[in-house]
Amino acid sequence: MSDRRKRTWVLATIAVMLWIALVVAAYHVTHKPFTVSQLVALGRAAAGLTGAGMVVVLGTGVGLLFLRRLDLKPLERVVWAAPLGLGVVSLVGLGLGAVGLLQPWMLWSLTVVGSAAACRRLLRALRAAWTDRTWRPQGRFELFLAGYCGITLVIALAWALTPPTAWDGLVYHLTGPKLYLATGGISHPLDLPYLGFPQLMEMLCTWGMGLVGERSAAPVHWLYGVLALLSLVTAGRRWLGTAAGWLAAALLFSARSILLVAGWPYVDLALLLYATLAFLTLARALEEDVQSHRWLALSGAYAGLALSTKYTALALLPALGLVLLVFQASDSGLGTRNLQLAAREWLLVGGVALFVWSPWLIKNFLLTGNPTYPFFFGGVYWDDWRAWWYDRPGTGLLYTAPWKLLTAPWDSTVWGREGLAGYSATVGPLFLMFLPFLLLVWRRLPTTQRRWLRAALVFCGVLYGFWLWGVARTALLMQTRLLFPAFGLLALIVSTAVEGLRSLPPRPLDLGWLARTVVLVVLGLTLVATFLSTAQARPLGVLLGHESRGEFLARRLGWHYTALEYINQELSSDAVVLFLWEPRSYHCAVDCRPDALLDRFLHATRLYGPHADAIAASWRAKGVTHVLFCQQGFEMIRKAGFD
Hints:
By secondary structure, the protein is mostly helical. It contains 29 helices and 3 strands. The chain has a 3-stranded parallel beta sheet. The longest helix is centred in the middle third of the chain and has 33 residues, at 336-368.
């Protein structure tokens, strides 16, 4: 081809490309595929997921460093490392807050440097986990279970990326991080008792919010849900075989309340994961002789991280201790030597757990004068009357309907519904339905499985006993959500029962086939219900920019958000607003004092008598300029007969 023809061809090519670009640009100027607001909305959602991912990447890199000498399968190594490292990240955040360095620039610096340092190790671990085929779904049944888990997690993620509306998130899970980032340090500036609770998850939310804002908080909790799912898959493969792992994961997310909290900035799935791993690592310790002390220490670390997440994790220590006794007794009887060995092992587990938990106890002691604030030893903003109000002893089932303690599993499953009084959770029928079938298949299971399951049943039994004790004492603890730490292992136990039915004779009735069919039907119905409720609630509108943040919050929160928007827009920046019968203050832009326990007015009458002038004078002396009265909360307390 001559030079002239080459130049002509080049010019023609350029002309064609310019023409195509001109037509495409001109068309889409008048026919915009998306608006700026939609692009911004998608960017906020993507930023939230990215921020949460950066926190988890940092934590996983740290955790891999701690587990490098332990014998773990590739996916196990990643799944067990991430929550361990996230606990370390949380403690680093606490340390930064203690010295006033809880600032976005510091969080960004540590995240970038830490992730870069761990990048090679993390990529190597992820590559090995992906190529490990042992956890992959096998057969159509497992593929369906994996698909169910994937769909439900996507739905939960959609909720996790929306602006926060979940109750406890607005009360304290996000309010604490908001206060910490505003000052750069850890403090207890409000009469908000929940700031004294263990705050591992709140510190991770603080870290994510410091990087990219509020949208990163709930996805951190969602990622804990993903890790919990994968921990069940790997545990099923290691100890129970067949499809038990994927079945356990699907069973866990058949509980719609667990699926809901996966999309909220809560702590429940983190606690569930830490409780599950505390048992699994203890099981590894009792199976091995060479590295048993390392596994025991790791079990204690996970138990300590559970304690750093929620006070109710105290039940883990006696549960782990009883598991040690059961394992020792199953070997050669519970003689004096075995009893001493179990005691030494439990002291190692408990000692590590208390050591890991101790920074949060020290934080509370320095800020409130009580290491376990607000329980046991009082402290700032607290007195005996408020302790009684918060605990409400004598209102539990033992005093009102003691026979219902025997029917609690039935009542919590059949009558319990998310958001309604009476257990306040929807857990699905599969746990209650199939757990008794374990008795039917027990003798057909291999000895190693029975040994592991016996310990798991003891562990779950102790957690259930502590929960039932709380339900017996006070109506305020009649919440199935407080039993969620046992649901990981319970899902593995139930999945073993379901799969064990396949070993029974197929005639006159193939119970194995029937059980799998029932599981598929229930999961299908759960999926339909989840789709319908999600379609009704319309989370995609705010994610895709069809609905603004304010419109979404007003639609979801109603008068609460309307009132707070009025405060934010109409009051001066130095206003101090005291809430009555309203504990949610996260969306408040001025100095708002939430009524965290719905007891502020009644407590004031105890201190100053039923005299409005005296009460008002006490509030003015504390700088209060306005009072927000929530009639709905007031009527709820009156109806309950507490005020």
